[in-house]
């Protein structure tokens, strides 16, 4: 289907245009603020040709498109233009504070990333030219280029103010005027000179601070503007709105912003920068390993936007960043390495094509096609990429590797690590290569490939395939995994399997094996068979909230068990009393290692623990 048809289908399956209060896009995703989640047909959207995935994250509904996202968004924008929005009719979905913060930051920065990354890349190219003595940093050419590259960052409050106005649904021209007030030459000169530290205005003290390159002060200022303008419109007659609403908005918002909000925002940015700097000073290798390894998960959830204010504060104060940009770079290159590993290892021709097409953008910092289309889909390569990111992050953290400009964290951003008279660039290359190589080699080592034989012989042919039988660890009624109230299990992200509604509070070993995983709350347990089948038994849904109440574990990690041995007990009445679901997923967590995992019993059939076979794992 073409872009127009895809946009129409997405809007329709989201409940129509009235269920969409705001839309924008990033490099690979359509992002929406919606009215009602219940109207979203997420499974239908995931099945659309041209959609790589869909999810609710950070108070947004996101549809992963890939490289065509801008074209699809244009069609979405055209279809939504002029139509009634849910937010205007009071139907916007409620968000908790954390979701609201992430939604605001991502909604503000995503539309202006093009200017930021373009300017950052130009700075990297200039650094490369200077490093190889192809350009003098005292030449007029350099001065002009530096002006072109640096203007975006110096006047960042203007870009952020305009974008924040669109996010907060307020007047963009007044928002830009507020940015101009923050950067008014007299205020900037007083801040730079240090002789005049404050000015008085109708009893208010206005501190003289430099707000160049800052983001938090203008975001808070525009947020205040959105409320001031709203209430001004209520008290001013419609015939005079165009004159007095802007006047009231400026006279009320600007002094409050200059006296209280902007200094507070500056302070927040300073402390964010100090926190991250201290973190890496105290525990550089560990902090780097954690950030580099977990960065794919941070990006998937949209939490990386929370680091933007600290990143810009660090770039403004010190001229470099040691947190977001470096850790994102090693994580992205590890993702590229893992994706290339899939290309070389897999025998599935379709997956080969997907892998090589996802590898190229991942190399340049666009990792969503690789994550959603390859590594996360196969699971083990995703773990390999996290390992690579952790190794690269540890190297970066050990040597405090610095990025000197904001650019998309990929191969083209490497020149932004150049620094004359230091080994920063050398350490950056070592970390990048280590993350890429570890991601690549770990993917080749991990067993995950389904191979070409998946289309050759039927499951019933035991001459070609070996089968591992799995007995039921619970007594109760069998249910399809698709019926699981938890989407993570229902969509088989954890692995294939089934569910059981337990009738008795005892979990037993489904085969001879070893306990591999326990939890502090004892609501779940992992076991691997002697033949390598890895199983997770999760008693109930959201039972982790019981904090172990009603659960007792009878075995320890590393303990050998035989089929039928008791593993843990649980109180069904406690689970019911807390109104939690008894649905208990039983899944094979290393499903990609096998040809298939198929249920051996029918849905709604009753099974007894340690007796009936419930799953067949086919090699």
Describe this structure in words.
Helix content is 48%, strand content 15%. It is globular. The chain contains 19 helices and 20 strands. An 8-stranded antiparallel sheet has the order 15-11-12-13-17-9-8-19, with no helix packed on it. It has a 4-stranded antiparallel sheet with strand order 1-2-4-3. A 3-stranded antiparallel sheet has the order 7-20-18, with no helix packed on it. By secondary structure, the protein is α+β, with helices and mostly antiparallel strands. It starts with a helix and ends with a strand. About 4% of the residues have low confidence.
Radius of gyration, in Å, reads 28 Å
The residue-averaged pLDDT reads 84
Give the total of beta strands: 20
Instruction: Flag low-confidence runs.
Output: 82-93, 451-465
- Helix coverage percent of residues? 40-55%
- Looking at how many chains there are and whether they match, the oligomeric state comes to single chain
How far is the N terminus from the C terminus?
Answer: 37 Å
What does the largest sheet look like?
8 strands, antiparallel
Beta-strand portion reads: 15-25%
How would you describe the shape? globular
Number of helices: 19
Q: Determine the structural class based on helices, strands and strand pairing.
A: alpha+beta
Strand order of the largest sheet: 15-11-12-13-17-9-8-19
């Amino acid at each position: 289907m073409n872009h127009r048809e895809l946009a129409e289908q997405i809007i329709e399956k989201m409940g129509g245009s009235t269920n969409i209060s705001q839309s924008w896009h990033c490099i690979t995703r359509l992002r929406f603020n919606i009215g009602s989640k219940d109207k979203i047909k997420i499974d239908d959207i995931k099945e659309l040709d041209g959609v790589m995935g869909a999810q609710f994250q950070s108070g947004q509904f996101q549809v992963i498109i890939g490289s065509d996202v801008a074209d699809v968004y244009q069609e979405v924008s055209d279809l939504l233009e002029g139509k009634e929005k849910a937010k205007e009719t009071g139907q916007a979905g409620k968000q908790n504070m954390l979701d609201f913060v992430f939604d605001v930051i991502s909604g503000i920065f995503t539309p202006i990333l093009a200017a930021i990354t373009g300017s950052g890349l130009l700075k990297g190219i200039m650094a490369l030219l200077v490093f190889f003595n192809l350009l003098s940093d005292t030449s007029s050419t350099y001065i002009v280029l530096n002006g072109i590259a640096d203007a975006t960052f110096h006047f960042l409050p203007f870009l952020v103010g305009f974008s924040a106005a669109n996010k907060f649904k307020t007047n963009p021209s007044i928002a830009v005027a507020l940015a101009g007030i923050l950067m008014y030459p007299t205020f900037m000169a007083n801040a730079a000179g240090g002789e005049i530290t404050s000015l008085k205005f109708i009893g208010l003290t206005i501190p003289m601070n430099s707000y160049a390159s800052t983001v938090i002060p203008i975001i808070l200022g525009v947020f205040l503007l959105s409320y001031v303008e709203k209430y001004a419109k209520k008290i001013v007659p419609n015939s005079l709105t165009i004159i007095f609403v802007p006047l009231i908005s400026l006279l009320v918002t600007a002094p409050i912003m200059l006296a209280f909000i902007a200094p507070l925002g500056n302070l927040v940015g300073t402390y964010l920068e100090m926190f991250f700097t201290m973190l890496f000073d105290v525990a550089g290798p560990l902090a780097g390993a954690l950030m580099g390894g977990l960065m794919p998960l941070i990006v998937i959830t949209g939490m990386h936007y929370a680091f933007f204010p600290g990143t810009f504060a660090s770039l403004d104060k010190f001229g470099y960043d040691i947190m977001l940009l470096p850790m994102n770079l090693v994580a992205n290159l590890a993702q590229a390495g893992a994706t290339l590993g899939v290309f070389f290892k897999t025998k599935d021709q379709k997956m080969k094509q997907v892998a090589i097409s996802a590898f190229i953008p991942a190399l340049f910092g666009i990792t969503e096609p690789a994550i959603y289309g390859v590594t996360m889909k196969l699971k083990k390569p995703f773990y390999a990429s996290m390992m690579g990111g952790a190794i690269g992050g540890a190297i970066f953290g050990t040597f405090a590797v610095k990025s000197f400009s904001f650019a998309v964290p990929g191969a083209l951003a490497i020149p932004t690590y150049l620094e004359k008279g230091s080994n920063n660039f050398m350490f950056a290359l070592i970390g990048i290569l280590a993350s890429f190589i570890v991601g690549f080699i770990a993917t080749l080592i991990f067993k995950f490939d389904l191979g070409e034989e998946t289309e050759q012989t039927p499951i019933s042919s035991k001459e070609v395939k070996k089968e591992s039988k799995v007995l039921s660890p619970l007594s109760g009624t069998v249910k399809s995994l698709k019926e699981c109230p938890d989407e993570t299990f229902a969509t088989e992200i954890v692995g294939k399997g089934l569910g059981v509604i337990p009738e008795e509070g005892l979990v037993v070993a489904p085969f001879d094996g070893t306990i591999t995983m326990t939890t502090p709350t004892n609501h779940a347990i992992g076991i691997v068979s002697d033949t390598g089948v890895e199983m997770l038994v999760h008693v109930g849904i959201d039972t982790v909230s019981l904090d172990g109440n009603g659960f007792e574990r009878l075995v320890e990690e590393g303990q050998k068990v035989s089929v039928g041995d008791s593993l843990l007990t649980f109180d069904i009445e406690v689970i019911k009393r807390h109104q939690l679901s008894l649905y208990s997923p039983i899944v094979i967590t290393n499903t990609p290692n096998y040809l298939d995992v198929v249920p051996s019993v029918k849905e709604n059939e009753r099974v007894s623990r340690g007796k009936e076979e419930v799953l067949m794992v086919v090699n």
